[in-house]
């Protein structure tokens, strides 16, 4: 079972701190990544966030946030299987 969720349809004006606050209510966050990053100069129409919890149980709970309007978008939250590092290496 994974302890990571992928959050899509994130408003471009949402910050990583706002996402950390929102998902922090659902469990202890080990790591949170928002793409493009807050300091990115690129114009974006939507962002993607990955939240890694300490406990896998938080993934199931966080899926209940799907269709919750946050800032100005309805979030989509799905479990995300982490890629095994040995399979993620480029081929020679």
Structural notes for this entry:
- This protein has 92 residues and is an alpha+beta fold.
- It has three helices and six strands.
- The strands form two sheets. A four-stranded antiparallel beta sheet has the order 2-3-1-6.
- The longest helix is centred in the first third of the chain and has 9 residues, at 16-24.
- It is globular.
- The model has no long low-confidence stretch (mean pLDDT 90).
Give a short summary of the structure.
This protein is of the alpha+beta class and 92 residues long. It is built from three helices and six strands.
Features:
4-stranded antiparallel sheet, 92 residues, alpha+beta, single chain, two-stranded antiparallel ribbon
Q: Please tell me the overall pLDDT.
A: 90
| Uncertain stretches of 5 or more adjacent residues | none
Q: Report the radius of gyration as a whole number of Å.
A: 14 Å
Structural class of the secondary elements? alpha+beta
Task: Please report which band the strand proportion falls in: under 5%, 5-15%, 15-25%, 25-35%, 35-45% or over 45%.
Answer: 25-35%
Q: Name the helicity range.
A: 10-25%
Main sheet, how many strands, which sense, barrel? Answer: 4 strands, antiparallel
Distance between the termini: 31 Å
Total number of β-strand segments? 6
Order of helices and strands: EHEEHEEEH
**Count of helical regions:** 3
Shape: globular
Q: What spatial order of strands do you see in the largest sheet?
A: 2-3-1-6
């Amino acid at each position: 079972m994974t302890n990571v969720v992928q959050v899509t349809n994130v408003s471009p004006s949402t910050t990583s701190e706002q996402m950390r606050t929102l998902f922090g209510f659902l469990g202890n966050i080990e790591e949170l990544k928002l793409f493009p990053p807050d300091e990115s100069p690129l114009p974006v129409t939507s962002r993607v966030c990955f939240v890694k919890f300490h406990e896998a149980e938080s993934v199931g709970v966080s899926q209940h946030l799907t269709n919750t309007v946050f800032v100005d978008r309805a979030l989509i939250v799905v479990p995300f299987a982490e890629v095994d590092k040995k399979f993620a290496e480029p081929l020679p």
